[in-house]
Amino acid sequence: MAEAPEPPEGADAMTRRRAAAMAGHRGDRARARAYLDDDEAAVRAGALRALERAGGLDAGRLAAALEDPAPAVRITALELAASRDDVAVGAAAARLDDPDQRVVEAAAWACGEKVSAVGADPVDPAPVVAALTRVARSHTDPLCRESAVAALGAIAHPDGLAAVLAGLDDRPEVRRRAVIALAPFDGPEVEAALAKAGNDRDKQVRAAVTELRGPAPGPD
Fold it and tell me: What letter does residue 3 receive in the DSSP assignment?
């Protein structure tokens, strides 16, 4: 396969981003790596994906990208770190305190993926659950609360149950997610919460309950 031409000096960000992506598809690690320090965040994010595709993104560089000044790069790094065993879950959990709400949302998802992954190295989930609980209960952005509730359901640690139950009193989108997140939990308080949610004013919340519990039995 012929090597892709190097973008001309002074090429715009879109051209550089495309060049990075092409390098990833061609397995050209050296060229993809050259864009990791580009001035434009979109190019750096594209270079991360390209280098991962080419099999050349080492754990140290990926962890460093979690601290990038640009939210778009941090989000990309979280998305890639979610499926990497060589990036500690603590590195993703640290971004739950990120000043950018989009990063927090991505971090919550990544934490849920990493802790709940089948075959993942055993980790103590308690600190991650505690951090997710804080986001689920008190973050100002509902998408962050929704993502944290979903992650707590994926992890299914008993310490996260109270925050999932609390999500049933949140906005409709969070309530819907909380119903789904209750799937791995059981006990009287869970059944009582689902029974209450079955009469929620939001029809999608009620539908989620029906999907989880099955339709209510009809009269004999």
Answer: P
pLDDT tens digits for range 93-136: 999 999 999 999 999 999 999 998 855 556 789 999 999 999 99
Q: Which residues contact 20 (CB under 8 A, 6 or more apart)?
A: 31, 32, 35, 38, 43, 46, 47, 50
Handedness of CA 118, 178, 87, 43 (dihedral sign): positive
pTM, 2 dp: 0.90
Distance CA 51, CA 96 (A): 25
Give the separation between CA 52 and CA 112, rounded to whole angstroms. 21
- What tokens were used for 82? 């979610």
- Look-up of token digits 């998408």: 143
Spatial contact of 36 and 61, defined as CB atoms under 8 Å apart: yes
